[in-house]
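Methods: example folding runs. The two proteins below were folded one after another, and each record is reproduced exactly as written to the output file, sequence line first and structure-token line second.
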Amino acid sequence: GSTQVEAMRKGTKKAPMEPEWIGLGMQHPGVAVCNPFLFEEHRKILRAVRKLKAQDGGPNSMNKYGKILYGAECRSWVQWLVDVLVQPVTRYYWPELRNLQRNAYAMTVEYEWNKQRSLATHYDSSDITLNVCLGGEFTGGNLVCYPRGKRVVLKQQVGRAFIHRGKLLHRAMPLKSGTRTNLVLWCKQVR
């Protein structure tokens, strides 16, 4: 449980190579799903994100609202997420991507039913993407992926994390009500 996560955060325990320790499963081809995200770690991360130095504005060319996360504080927990979650899952499900850079591009994306409600179909500028619903009260806004040309709808809910290849075609369906904040890490392979 959470004592295992704390031990890994302190460096006294390494993340296991197999992701079952967090209840992770390949729910659909090409998308690993974890719920609840690292034993409720999303609540701590959302509080931390609100306090971090961040650049307001569009965090990428498609999202109009959110923050680019940077600085030493951010870098340490982004590296921790890559080490403890993203890298073990990647090695397990996509072994051809053996080593990821620890300095992932980190951002939050904000969706509001009366502002940016959805996101068009796209690929990410990454080898592996971590997308975690950190918080909000909302309806709708599910993630739609197209592995092998099939349409798969994945329910967004607070605490749920999705990990997928950046080259997986996907989109965010429109929110029907409310707001949602997601943490997104774009991870690149060490070349």
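Second run, written to the same file directly after the first:
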Amino acid sequence: VLPSGIVLDEVGTVQDVEVPKSGFEVTARLNENFAFHRRVSIAVDYLSDGIRFRTEQVSALLVLETEIPVATKDLSVGEVVSKGDVLWKKIRLEAEPSNLALNANDIIGHQVTATIAMGAPFEQNSLRRIPVVREGDRLTLESVFGLVRVAALGVSRQDGAIGDKVRVILLSDSRLVWARIVGPGLAMVVP
């Protein structure tokens, strides 16, 4: 049994084996610590009445069969991806995708940073989260110490989306601190 989404593309041959007339079974198994590779070795077990009497290693080529999000139209730099801009397409890959955005949450509502052609997959480096804070914006900074919550005002020194870590100048004493954006105009001080 192969992990979900993995299919055999090509299997090598095994040597001739003399088998019993009844109670014969062949099973195949992958290494317990399976990690996707295009070419793998599969253990083929020959069983007679449930008892293994021979094992051979057989080479096989695997492909990853999965659905990926692709663009339904050409998307230009600066556009924000909407739900209607994304279509899920079944494909076969010979390697695990490394730069593809595979989750709708990593695509929808994000801004295009490099042109994406109709039918092309969404790549992580072609999208960015939309900044909710711009350089120069005033922020309420909060810091929590146990049960005590302290708030201060500051000015962002860079653009940032929710979850981004940005530099902020405190208005009270002009110190530079780092804060994580939690919403428009609001950030939490980070160590």
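Comment on the second run: The longest strand covers residues 51-71.
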